[in-house]
Amino acid sequence: AEEWFIPWQKDLSDQDLGQALRGIRQRATGENGVCAIKVMANQLHGIENNLKHVIKPPPGPQFFRFFKVFENAIWVWLRRDDIVAQAVSRVMAQQTGINHATHGEKHFAGKLMTGYRDDYNAATRYDYDGILRECTAITLENLVWRDFFKNFKISPITFLYEEIIADPSLGHLDIMASAAGVDGPWTKEHRKLVKIGNSRNQSFIDMFYRDSAARRFH
After folding, report:
1. DSSP summary character for residue 75
2. Where are the beta strands (DSSP E) in the chain?
3. Which residues of 84-106 are buried (b: 16+ CB within 10 A; e: fewer)?
4. What is the SS3 assignment for 2?
5. Which end of the chain is more exposed for a tag (fewer CB within 10 A), N or C?
6. Percentage helix, strand, coil, to 5, in the chain?
7. Handedness of CA 18, 20, 25, 31 (dihedral sign)
8. pTM of the entire structure?
9. Distances (CA, A) of 166 to 80, 161, 192
């Protein structure tokens, strides 16, 4: 799944948004007929703000328009259990300009390092306030999704990042295929992206826990 709604973070009122939605659905639908779209919590406001030109008035809770567009979807919630590690990764990405890496293959992901180098983040600096800010943001993002699912009585398929990367059988793909009604047999393809966190990430994590306690978690 790709983040098709990134362009929706700006005002698109001068466009035919109904046609834009149909275009997203078409581009996001694979050969098996399954449409898969990735949406981040920080994209919801922009999406909702543009949808007011398509769906009005909003007769429900926050992000009602977004829900109406996808009310028949199978919702999959992927989150990370270790939000400090996630926050450190975000700060690293901000400082290096690199969000993803592969072993050498080309890939569609943005801000990509082709061919992993263990020293790619050697010049990064420890930033307590930056990590704390990202911990807060991640916590709020998770709470927004919890509130969204509660408001619209959705029971999402929930995966933890840590469990997925530790499962060589890729069992989460079986769960999603079953939920989407995709009949086998089919071939599982391992991710081309590689985990870029290294010992420097861990050192920042350790420093953050030490400093957060010393600062009384402020």
Report:
1. P
2. 76-79, 100-102, 112-114, 157-160
3. bbbbbbbbbbeebebbbbbeeee
4. strand
5. C
6. 45, 10, 45
7. positive
8. 0.89
9. 13, 9, 15
